Amino acid sequence: MPENKSTIKRGYAVVALDHPMNGLNVGQALRASGCYGVDLFVVGGPHAHYHRKQLFGHPADTQKAYRHIPSCITDDVFNLLPYDCVPIAVELLPQAKSLVEYRHPERAFYIFGAEGETLDARVVDKCKEVIYVPTNFCMNLAACVNVVLYDRLAKQRRIF
User: Fold this and answer.
1) Residues 32 and 149: beta-carbon distance below 8 Å
2) What does the alpha-carbon distance between residue 22 and residue 51 come to, in Å, rounded to a whole number?
3) How confident is the model at residue 160 (pLDDT cuts 50, 70, 90)?
4) CATH top class, domain 12-159
5) pTM for the structure as a whole
6) Which residue from 99, 93, 78 is spatially nearest to 146, judged by alpha carbons?
7) Taking the CB of residue 44, how many other CB atoms lie within 10 A of it?
8) Which of 61, 64, 76, 120 is in Cβ range 3.0-4.6 Å of 27 for a Cys bridge?
9) How many C-beta atoms surround the C-beta of residue 90 within 10 A?
């Protein structure tokens, strides 16, 4: 059951998927974005334009979230980075901060890599922060989006 939305929302969140390979994961990430109130959804990569129909409107997006959240396709996710928004790579890297202790910025641009791939240096080097979800095994793309967005929401609610 949805919670009372009388709390004033501060800031915004953007989910950016860099070079996703699987329409199912894009659909599930869009669904998570709808559940957790994401304000912009971005899919980046040179081939994303050719796979538009597989990326948006996938049956896994049961809410048809792309109709309610601005959803964009671009060659490079940084083309759609809003002004004064913090780019955050979500990746298992030695310098990454654990999500457990992480304090989410008010304006966050979360960048997730492709399934079975690592975000490359061209993305990580442009990010102000790198975070990871501590798990015993790697998670799939959509599951990781869900966990990061839930963590953001839970921590924001504790602040108010």
Assistant:
1) yes
2) 10
3) very low
4) alpha beta
5) 0.89
6) 99
7) 21
8) 61
9) 25
Q: Do residues 106 and 66 lie in contact, with contact meaning Cβ atoms separated by under 8 Å?
A: no
Nearest to 56 by CA among 84, 88, 23, 80: 23
43 closest CA partner among 132, 107, 123, 111: 111
Q: What is the pLDDT of residues 118-157, one digit of tens each?
A: 899 999 999 999 999 999 988 889 999 999 999 999 998 7
Token pair in block for residue 16: 């950016």
State how far the Cα of 6 lies from the Cα of 138, in Å rounded to an integer: 36
Q: Letter for the amino acid at 125?
A: D
Residue whose structure tokens are 């659909």: 27
43: amino acid identity, one letter: V
Q: How far is CA 2 from CA 35, 106, 124, 141, in A?
A: 9, 22, 35, 25
Closest CA to 45 of 70, 67, 78: 78
Nearest to 55 by CA among 30, 75, 91: 30
